[in-house]
């Protein structure tokens, strides 16, 4: 997968070297089942038209720049993890737009001209609620107008499970209330963080990217995956522990050594961090 970083204003050289593509559009935090539906739809079109499959996304999250309402600074999938998932899904080109105040002020029609037409987009694919341009004034209906016939547009319908829209917001709310066991219904797999670990028998220290969104404080059953090693244990979260580090106590297995590529999966909520027997129900961020 080829990665192209784009700042403001977009460089003419990047536009001139761009390849004809089908472009999937969105922020894609978590790359959940709804996001996968969009990317798979774009991939099908790319195969039919013999074009490159491209994804255009932004970083950081617009809320951290515009600062209106709740700001998102921790992610379900930090940027390097999101890139790896895109590659696994068969993406050929990844356009990463650095989101800043200048990009936030780009009119919707200019965004289409510079960032879609300018990057040789032949077909744009996005979810029904995708917006773009200054104050999100561009939507999927406007995209048809702004394209001026230069490219086709496909709108992917809402994906629902258990009568709820599959969304990054839903996943963050489940994390914030400790309901990690429900996330796999919408993500397609258990919620996990990636990092490195130092293991000393049943005690394991995990170093992780602080950009990850973590569940609310409490005690959780987790699974550690490190190469061929797989084991379950308990991880306690509280507001006093240092960011970027977690400690897991394994139930039965033991392991010794340093491991660079570790996946920590969040399986179930057990109790709050004072070990009271209840399950978090309210969003602690509200």
UniProtKB/TrEMBL annotation:
Name this protein carries in UniProt: FAD synthase
Name of one Pfam family that matches: FAD_syn
GO terms under biological process: FAD biosynthetic process; FMN biosynthetic process; riboflavin biosynthetic process
Superkingdom of origin: Bacteria
This protein's record includes keyword Nucleotidyltransferase: yes
Lineage: Bacteria, Bacillati, Bacillota, Bacilli, Bacillales
Keywords for this protein: ATP-binding, FAD, Flavoprotein, FMN, Nucleotide-binding, Nucleotidyltransferase, Transferase
PANTHER family xref list: RIBOFLAVIN KINASE, RIBOFLAVIN KINASE/FMN ADENYLYLTRANSFERASE
